[in-house]
Structure formats: structure tokens, C-alpha cells
Amino acid sequence: MNSYLKRKIDDNDMEAKKPKREECPHKERCYRRNPHHFKEFEHPFLMKLIDMGDALEIPENMPQPKQVYLEQLDILKPIVASQKSKNLEVKLKEEATSSQTKPKTNKQQKVEKDSTDGPSNSKSPSKSASKVSRKGKNTIFNSENVSENNTKCESGTMLEKMQKTAPYNLFFTTIPKSPETSKEDNCITFTDLLCPSLGTLKSSLQINFMIDIDWLLKQYKARNLHQKPLTILYGDDWPDMVEFMNRFCPNVKYHFVKMKDPFGCHHSKIGIYAYEDDSIRIVISTANLYYEDWNHYNQGLWVSPKLRKLPEGSTIKDGESPTGFKSDFLNYLTSYNVAVLKEWIDCVKTADFSEVKVAFVYSAPGKHYPKTNGNHLHKVAELLSQYCVLPEKTTPQSEGPLSWGIIAQASSIGSMGKTAAEWLRGCVLRSLASHKKSPKPNNSQATISLVYPSVDNVAHGYFGLQSGGCLPYSKATNEKQRWLQTYMHQWIADGKRRTRAMPHIKSYCRISPGLNKLAYFLLTSANLSKSAWGNNIQKDGGSYIRSYEAGVMFLPSFFNEDFFEIQNTSDNKNKKLFPFMFDLPLTPYKKDDYPWCN
Prior knowledge:
Helix content: 25-40%
Number of domains: 3
CATH superfamily of the largest domain: Endonuclease Chain A
Structural class: alpha/beta
């Protein structure tokens, strides 16, 4: 048994001897250079190095390069110094408190009594008032007494945020380094998704790529939900994850999604939450389930309304969304063909999706054809061809479809070929530029702009060059397609105070010439790659997918709108704006700019 698991057993059996922080399971193999990681885990090896002082000497034949340990020490030293300072402050306070609680002389007691005695109408708080105040502060929100559409709910709850952001329910992650983000109505943490105002949680499902099970369970524990049944599907193994779950997580069912294609990735990020009243709620996200993704990077999430259970005797086709979300989502879940999803598929089958106004877009490994889901290229083109309406060009001065530009924003980029015509314009742009009444051969004439952080963007991030940890674009790939840099634009989100937090969010949209309206908005886990979107369309119309991806498409017609407004103008002062993260107009790369590469 490794020491990490042995220590967990000792902690369970002997709570009194439990250390304040666990030792990093990677020990000397640890490569992390994230301040939070060093605050969460002990690193005895690094502490010994710090104790050496000027005589510091890193042993030879260590598992990591010496430079890694030196960088870790630079991060750890100020944390240790800060902790020592806090410990000293606590000790001084304790000493001061101790001196104040010494027995008082008769003279001191008389002075205090004289100063507190007063007229009978004194307004000092009563014991009963104090008790009511404490009770009110700790009252657990009872979701059973509140409907989803009720205009009144407890302030600060997730339900209130849902009501304030309706009908879009598009959220961004809060960034602790930018405290202003926490004040936005549509900015949330993971524990907000577990808020009791949304319902009394019965069980939940997490479908994701990277899951730090220890961090995830701590989020559930923060809401006292860590013993509720949890099912996870994941695509990337963490050290000791399976053994950890087998020993310490009896409430967790799990399935590792092993990809047949070596270049494929289980990249979807989905949550399903089941409540005691038999309703469910679905969350489509861009965030992995570990600390950095929820605290360091910009992410996007769509949170569904409460999907109530259909009456007995309903069929699988009942309760369908106007967008076809239910059937597409069921097709996605069944594509896994794994036993742990059976109960969740049954929950979805019996849920009422009629209030869902977004379309579900997904990719699943295999070859797919037009008019079917399972491939971003096909599904996005189909949805836009049916529901995206752009102004017709009636005069030389009027706005035509081609004046509405496409913006693609991603956190990684795949190999696209030697020229833009090969895949970017020949496949992706044709899909993203589709709309009603548009002859498809002309779609590729639209403009497309790519938002992706430059080296300068990352260097000025909150964590310096380590800020680029969520941007795995290969330098070798970039060197083969340097033509792509003519399409690239800087990551700037000053308006939302998010410029220094790098984007792990992926979004695609079509924007008006005035930069104030959207013809559609796609939030998805799919980066700009053939593995995620589909390779070049073949003669039979088919396109091959390597990865699992999931997203939601916002189309104005399903919200009874012509377009989504993203900026206030004199014509839309009282209109609710659609959440938009980065700044407009875009800032193109300069000649000496270079995209951040891993």
C-alpha cells in the first residue's frame, strides 16, 4: 500500500492525529508550480530544502529537473513566511485574550456594572432577539416552497442568480484574483451548482475529461453532500484515483472512458443533478473538475431550468424541447453504451425538457453524416441553416450577410493544413457561416477572426507564464501553419475584468457590423480542431470524429428575439443583454506577436 493511501486510513482511524494538510501524493515527483497546490498539500522534501538556507543543494538523480525544484521553492518560500506570520499573530491574540479573562477585582466589577446599568427603556439586544438572528443566519433554504419562476427568493442563492440571468442562464466562473467578478450576477463557483435553493440533491452525474476526485468531493462536502450517490465518467487518470475511490468513496460509481483512437479525447464537460422531487437539472460546461479550472481560468456554463418528471404514462417523445435538445442529449448518452449511465438515461427519458431554449450540439467518435448529430460540423450547419436569420442586402449601403463576421475563440488549436482553404475556410467556416436563404457555396466568403492568447497575454497573466497551463497548442503545429496568425487576435476582456485570467472557455458566434448584436452564440468544449469538429467533409458527405465534445447553441428565434443584444444602445436601454466575455472591437496580432504554445 502506498504511503498516500496509508495516511488516509490513519486519518480516518485516528482523527485526533490528522495533520492539518495532507502530503502531496506525488512527493519528489511533484511538478506543480501553482501557489494553491502548495497551500493545499505539504511538501516535506521542499521544506527540507528551505531549511538548508544558503547551503541549499538539490540531490542528483531526482525525478524532476533541478530548475523545477528551484521554481517551486520560489513559490513556496513566501507562503511559508506568510504562514509563520499568521501563526505569530494568532499566538499574540491568544495571549491578549488570556490576559483579559483573568479574574477581576471587586473594583473592576463595580466599574463595569456602573457603566452597563441604565434606564429600564435601554435598547440593548435581548437574548431572544439574538437567538432569532442566529437562527435566521443558519436557516437552510427550503427549495420545496419555491417555484423556479417565483420572483422572490433568498438573496444570494443560486436560484436568485438563475432568475436574474434568465432566460439565457449563461454563467462564467468567478476569478479570485479579480474580486470584481464575484459581484456579477452570472458569475458562480462550483458549489453554487450544489446550492440547496436549486433543490434537495438526491444524486448527481459528472461527465468530464480531468477530474481531481479529492477536490471534487471537497466541493460536495462544503454543501454537506459528500455522501450522496455520485457517478463519474472521466477521460484522464489522476494518480491513485481508482484506488482512492475504491477505498474511501463507497458512494461513487465510476467509468474510465478509454478512447480507441490515440488522437481522440473524452473532452465533454456535463453535469446532471437529480433532486428528491424527481426533477433533474443539466449543466453544460467548459471546465474540468479541479481547482485551477474553477479559480484561475475563464470558463463558461449553461445551467438548465428544473426539468420536472413527466406524468405516468408519458412516452419518450413527450416533454421534448422546441430545439430537439432531449432527443439529441439521449443519443449522446446512449452513444457511450456503458452500464453506469442506464439510470441516468432513464431519468432523462422521463424528464420534461419543454422549457429548454438552447440546442444540444455534441461530437462522438465515429463517422457521421449531414442531418445527424454527433459531429459539430454537421449539426451547427444544420441548426444555422434552419434558424439563423441575417439581414438581406437590399441596397449598396445596407448590411448584408457577409458583413456579419464570425468569431471563433478557443483554448487550443489543432492541425489545419497548409492553407486556410483546406479546413478552416473549407469546412469550419462553411458550417459557422450557414444561415437561412444562403447559398452554401458562398458561406466561405464570410470573414472569420480567431481569438487566442499571445505570449504577451500569458506573460501578463495573474501567474506569469504559468497562466498558459490551459492552452495546450503545440508549437510544432503552429510552425506548420504560420498563415493562421493572420487570423489571430489578442485575448482582451477588460470590460469584464478578466484579461489577466486566461480563457479555457470555447465560444463561436456571428456578430453584426456595429459589434452590438449576435446572430447566434455557441458555447462548447470543442476547441478548433478536426478531432473535435470533424475532419474534411468526404465525397459521401461524411466526416470522421475522434473526440467526445458537448456544447449548447443559443439561437435568437427560440428566445423570441431577432438578435441577441450585447451592448446597450439608445434603442435597447431596457433590454436584457446577452452575456459576452471579451472586448470588442478585437485587437489583431502585431507582426512580432506569437501565439502561446505549449
